[in-house]
Amino acid sequence: MKDKINKIILVLKKDGLLKTLEKIYKYIKANYISKINFFSYLYIKINYKKFKHEINNILNSNYDRIIVWRSSFGWNVPLFQRPQHIAKNLAKKNCLIFYETTTVTDKVKTFKKIDNNLFLVNFNNTAMKKLINNSLKNIKKPKYIQFYSTDCTVSITELKEYIANNFKVIYEYIDDINPKLIGTINLPANLQDKYNYMLKDKENVFVIVTAEALKEDVESKRGKEKLAFSCNGVDYNHFKNINKNFIFDRPFSDVLNNSNPIIGYYGALASWFDYDLIKYLALQKPNYNIVLIGIKYDDSFDKSNLSDYPNIYFLGPKDYNILQNYASNFDVCTIPFLINSITEATSPIKLFEYMALGKPIVTTAMKECKKYSSVMIANNKEEFVNLIDKSLLINKNQTEDYFKLLNKEALENTWEAKADIIINLLKKYEV
To answer: Do residues 70 and 97 share a domain?
Structure first.
């Protein structure tokens, strides 16, 4: 309860009273009212044999292992990210995936097939959850529950119940465990409990890390057993599929029409974003258009006063399905993050998407960005500006070797390759 109160306080500061009340209502509806929806429960009870038959048919199909993804991330969200990409590619590799939906973003009352071996499941529907879990109990094939290190959906008690029913755990350690990432003042006890459990249970828990800092943390505390490094990646074909006839909204059309170079960023606008660096760039290069696409993750953007700068354009979030059309018009792609415990443990998805777009990349000196030869690393604000100038020359001169390097590193970091790493780890221990 304390964690929830702290989060409400932060949302109040960021969004004001009315929006906070609206979010509280949606949260209660999604997480509590939906669980006690008598009609949904009754519908499954009345049609129990039908649902049981359908689930048994799924479980009797041909697959190598079952993975139950538990999270509040959802499927039909504007930010189509690691959870959905990993699930899709695991399903393609003959894993049977039951992916948890949310009632906020997904219109799934029971369960829904969206691809071969891939099903969305409303675990908030208690009757459906019970039916799925009971059906899985006697399955002899390898079974796993998978979740993020930053997700509060599954309690430690529920996790142990899965293990008691012969499930193993895939613990995806994706970020520094930091309350700023969760949107709370203090770290929720749920996250700390599961992190501590991961460290001690080497028999049942497989750990997937996405950054070297996270790998070092795990190795120092529980060793290398059942551990794999699988950083974020890219849907290469998606970011190559540019709609040349796409009609942009008015703000971006205005940017395109003034013909100045476009220095772009998309992602969260949060406390780890280096607003002062962008202000410096805006002042040093008033003839550059600086385009920011994404969500205001906290109140840091509003406090930064970036909107006061005439050559900085904040366009808000863009759906994943059209994002590549916007980003393909960037002349330079950037990741201007502060260097701290959060960003040092971050594998930016956008990094690999920028590569697939074939755009010069300039970032600050994050560990996970330094690994790639195509990324230009700035150690200070002067270097950041100079590297952007250098990037524009690369574009102008169409430097072939650099663009080949971008493409090579994009192809080395597809989501398919990241899913393969996870499967290969599991296979080592499957009987």
So the answer is: yes
- Distance, in Å, from the CA atom of 267 to the CA atom of 12, rounded to the nearest integer, reads 22
pLDDT tier, 296 (very low <50, low <70, confident <90, very high otherwise)? very high
The H-assigned helical ranges of 249-289 are 250-257, 275-284
Separation CA 327–CA 58 (nearest Å): 40
Domain identity same for 172 and 292: no
The pLDDT of residue 347 is above 50: yes
Claim to verify: residue 173 and residue 298 sit in the same structural domain: no
CA 58 to CA 260: how far, in whole Å?
A: 55
**DSSP secondary structure of 80-104:** --HHHHHHHHHHHTTEEEEEE--TT
The DSSP secondary-structure symbol of 393 reads H
Q: Do 218 and 299 have their domain in common?
A: no
Q: Tell me the three state secondary structure of residue 174.
A: coil
Q: What is the mean pLDDT of residues 256-268?
A: 96
Q: How far is CA 179 from the centre of its chain?
A: 17
Q: Are residues 178 and 131 in the same domain?
A: yes
| One domain for residues 151 and 295 | no
Instruction: Verify that 132 and 193 share a domain, yes or no.
Output: yes
CB-based contact 259:289 (threshold 8 Å): no
Q: Would you call 347 helix, strand, or coil by DSSP? A: coil
Domain of residue 246: give its range. 236-411
* 18 and 116 share one domain: yes
Number of domains in the chain: 2
Q: Which residue has the tokens 């997904």?
A: 106
Torsion of CA 124, 126, 129, 133, to 10 degrees: 140
Contact 233, 85 (CB under 8 A): yes
Q: What does the alpha-carbon distance between residue 313 and residue 255 come to, in Å, rounded to a whole number?
A: 8
Q: In this predicted model, what pLDDT tens digit does every residue of 132-187 receive, in sequence order?
A: 999 999 899 999 999 999 998 999 999 999 999 999 999 999 999 988 887 777 88
